[in-house]
Every structure is written in C-alpha cells, then in structure tokens.
Amino acid sequence: MTTQAPKAHPAKGGKKVIEIRKALFLDRRIGFEPQILKDSVILYHDGIVMYCDSAYLDEAANRFEAFGTVQVVQGDTLFLYGSYLEYEGDIKLLKVRKNVRLVNKDVTLFTDSLDYDRVGNIGYYFDGGMLVDSLNELTSYWGQYEPAKHIALFRDSARLTNPKFVMYTDTLLYDTQSKISTIVGPTRIESDSATIYSTKGWYNTSTEQSLLLDQSRIINKEGDRTLTGDSIYYHKKEGYGEVFGNMHLQDTTKKVILTGHYGLYNERTNYAMATDSALAIEYSQADSLFLHADTLELITDSIYREMKAHKGARFYRSDLQGVCDSLQFNTKDSTLYMYQNPILWNENHQILGDTIQVFFNDSTIDWTHIWPNAFAIEDKDSIHYNQVKGRDLKAYFENKSIKHILVSGNAESIFYPEEKDKSMMGMNQTESSFLSMDFEDKKIQKIKLWPKATGKMTPLADLKPELGKLTDFQWYDYIRPLNRDDVFRKVQRKAGWDSSKRRSNRTTTTTTPPPVSQ
Fold first, then answer.
1. What's the chain's Rg over C-alpha atoms?
2. Predicted confidence (pLDDT) per residue in 266-276, tens digit
3. Least CB-packed of 112, 164, 174, 330 within 10 Å?
4. Cα–Cα nearest to 188, from 215, 170, 206, 176
5. Does residue 200 belong to any structural domain of this protein?
6. How confident is the model at residue 7 (pLDDT cuts 50, 70, 90)?
7. 2 lies in a domain?
8. Is there a domain that residue 397 lies in?
9. Taking 60 as the threshold, does the pLDDT of residue 497 lie above it?
10. Region Disordered: start and end of each range (predicted)?
11. Which residues constitute the domain of residue 24?
12. Does 509 score more than 90 pLDDT?
C-alpha cells in the first residue's frame, strides 16, 4: 500500500522531531508502537537527511532504526554509509553498524561499528577501524574523528602506513589537513633508511619533517648507528637531524661515541657535529680515548672515520694525554694531527712543539713527529728533568712507552747519567746538529750526537737551579688531563711557551740528517 508521508508537526517546547520526507509504504500495527516505513525511505532531522530501505520510526521517543542500504548526508561534506542505523533524535546520536563508511572530503573512515555524536561533531569506533586520506592509511582498535577540526585520535594497536614509512604506537593524534601526526605515547617509525623511537613529538607525514622529544632515538637501517637527544629536529627526506640537549651519537661498527648539548647529524654524508660540552669517545680498544673541545666533528664512511676538534682540545687515554687548540684524526692513515701550542704526555714524558703528529698502529701509539721547535722532557724526580730539543723530533714507541728519540737540527740536551747504584753522577749538557737517544726499561740507555758535538758535565754539588733547564723550558703538569672527566677542565696556561709566536734564532747546519740507526 502506498502512503503519502505525513507532514511533521513541531513538538511542544520547540523540540525538533524526525520528519518523514518519503516512504513508499507505511504501516501501523496494533500493539507495535513504531511506524514501519519501507521502500525508498527518506527521513530528515535538523540538517541531516537519512536514506534507507526500511525503518522503524518511534515518533514518541523521537528515534528510529534503519535497515538495508543506509546513507546519512550532512551538507555537502559529510556522508555516512552502513547496513544498520539507530538514531536518537533528542541527543542527536547516530549508531551505524555493518560495513560502515564515513566520507569527509578526501578522508574515508571504514569500520563495522561507528557512533556519531552530532552535537560534538565526533565519530568514534570501538571494534577496529581504518581511516584513509590522500596520503596515509591509519588503523587501530579504537578511534575517533572530528570532521570540522580535521583531527583523528587512534588508540590501541594504532598504525599509520605511508608509502615511505610505517608508524606503530598505542596512541596517535593525526591532523588530516596538515598531515601531521602528534606522538603522545611510545612510538616506533620504520622506513627503508632508519627506525625512530619516540614518546613525544610530531611528525609531518607529507614533508617528512619531525620534532622528537624526551630522549627520542633514531637508528640507521644497519642498526649500528644510534642518535639520541632531548629534542631532535629530524628531516628524513634530507637525512638531516639537529639535536638540542644531551645529544648522544654512537657508531658500534666504528666504535665511537659523540656527545654534546647541541649537535648536527647528516645520515647521507655521515657527518656529525657536537658542541657545548662536546665529548668524543673512541673505544675500539679496551683502553678508550676521551676527547673534548668546544666543537667536535665526526665524518665516517663504510671503512674510515675522521675526527676534528676545534678550540681547546683536550684528550685522555691511560697511555697518552694531550692538549692543543685544534686537532684532526683520520683512521685512513691512522694519524693524529695536533696544532697550535700542542702538548703530548706519555708516562713521565712531556713533548711539545709547533705541530705534533701521532702515528698509530692498530690504535696503539707507534711514533710521533714534532716540528719545528720540538721540546721533549722527562721528569726524573720532580726536581731534575732530562731534556732534549731541536728543530725536528721523532719519538718511537714500544709497548706504549718511548723507545727511541731522534732530533734533527739544533739539537740540545740536558740529561742526568746514573751510577750503577742509580745515584745521579751530575748533569750533562750537549749541543749538536743531530741527536739520537735510546731507552731501556723506561730509562735512557744510550745517547749519540753527530757530526760535531759540544758538551759539559756538571757535578750535582756545583749545579745551580737555573742551569738545570734549557731555554723555553716549561713543565705543564697542571694542564695535563688526569682522567676521562678531567678533559672538561678549563685551564689557563701560564706565561711561557707559545709555539705560534716563538721562532728559533739559531741557524741550522743542515736540514736533512744523515742515515742513523733507529
């Protein structure tokens, strides 16, 4: 039976009632309060139009149930589809079930159970769902979406899938307009280049820029390089990270750690920089090296690494300590270069000059080259010092101790030979063009001077304090780093040696030493 839809009558008190716009069949049954509407049913309530195959309309309760092909239209931006709908007109609550689809411009939400609160303009699901926009696909067990604000919230096994990465978390806030996901809980982001772990921050899924907070971590795809920091601005597309607070970069393959309160890292060029309490730790051997400077740079590739320190460099290793204004170390040639007032310590030896090169063999010191104005000092007993200086000095090591010294050009020395009972005979002072010195059991065993040499032996009884030191002698024990933490100590160097200003007034007899056994 075809029935003309009745006109709606406003309820008392101005309450808006559900209107029947169309129904090809309408039936009222005795003992069954709701009206039965069938065939091309169209209902209207306060700005929304609802379509279905059939419905039960309870006018007294201002509610209805819809069956079949259900569609809800709100304006021209929100469309809701399903197989079953329950609508409460007084509280404006839609409950859509089975094959539910909510469409809002370029956003589509799929689920089997969706409640939509028209008052708050919020739709939420609680039995698994998926939201898809022009760029991402988001799934979770529970979720809600606010079309007017373009905001979606996902909880319980949330996942965001992007063509370039996948984000896993328990709680995720997502802006469908800006494509920014807000991280509000433990989150893992996996891509072909890195994995990110974060508990707080945001990630722009369109530009691949992000701000990661609270000691977030970025691990490269090989799993051997980790970047951590209080705040990390990370641009995945450019492979660039800027770290603010407690930066910690570790390369487990190259065995190096770089830390500081501010830093940069480029995963494409493998370049890293740290400043503000910067520290580098090289731990390829059991005896780690600790390096501090105002600014540290680290460059690595698949085989080698290069480290640079700028302004106020200080380093410590149990067998070797040093200070200088700047230094550079490259594993390609296993050489450490120290510039501007460099000082090197090994056991009770101090070596300084304008420039110092330290050569390593498998991370163990092999030999050093100091030029010009080289000066090596050995502390015998805090009063007497063995000394050797010259234009060019090479020191060779064995088992981390000095084994041999070769001085070329303007060689001067002061040393204290010993009797068999180890008592000092006196002070021997020499001058020559070249000098070599051999050590045995960490003591001077043999000295050779050539081609011509002058010297003088002074008994200890006749030795005046001012005669026991060569020109420019300085013992910088107060500057020497004493342990790994001491590399941060700021020390003002007392007036004295300055390799950048000092120039030798002596004339070198030759610049190339004749062959000598080493």
1. 40
2. 999 999 999 99
3. 164
4. 170
5. no
6. very low
7. no
8. no
9. no
10. 493-518
11. 17-117
12. no
pLDDT at 187: 98
Distance CA 399, CA 386 (A): 21
Under 8 Å CB-to-CB from 313, ≥6 apart: which residues? 291, 292, 293, 322, 323, 324, 325, 326, 327, 338
Phi-psi domain of 277 (left: phi exceeds 0; alpha: psi -120 through 50; beta: other):
left
Closest C-alpha to 449, from 467, 458, 437, 459: 437
Q: Report yes or no: 106 and 134 within 8 Å, Cβ to Cβ.
A: yes
Distance in angstroms (rounded) separating the CA atoms of residues 56 and 29: 11
What token pair was written down for 32?
A: 């069954």
Token pair for residue 378?
């050995």
**Is 38 contained in some domain?**
yes
Given a contact cutoff of 8 angstroms between Cβ atoms, the answer to whether 436 and 396 are in contact is no
- Which pTM was predicted? 0.84
At 461, is the secondary structure helix, strand, or coil? helix
For residue 294, pLDDT over 50 is answered with yes
Q: Are 104 and 123 in contact (CB under 8 A)?
A: no
The domain that holds 68 is classified in CATH as 2.60.450.10
End-to-end Cα separation, the chain, in angstroms:
118
Q: 114: closest CA among 129, 103, 133?
A: 129
Confidence of residue 31 (pLDDT cuts 50, 70, 90): low
- C-alpha 104: how far from its chain's center? 39
32-67 tens-digit pLDDT: 678 899 999 999 999 999 999 999 999 889 999 999
As a residue count, the chain comes to 518
Q: How far is CA 184 from the centre of its chain?
A: 20
Q: Which amino acid is at 83?
A: S
Spatial CA neighbour of 497 closest among 342, 365, 286, 357: 342
Residue-wise pLDDT tens digits, 83-120 = 999 999 999 999 999 999 999 999 999 999 999 999 99
Q: Per residue in 112-161, pLDDT tens?
A: 999 999 999 999 999 999 999 999 999 999 999 999 999 999 999 999 99
On the 0-12 / 13-18 / 19+ scale of CB atoms within 10 A, 242 is: middle
Mean pLDDT of the chain: 90
Number of domains in the chain: 1
Alpha carbon distance 383, 370 (integer Å): 25
Alpha carbon distance 307, 281 (integer Å): 11
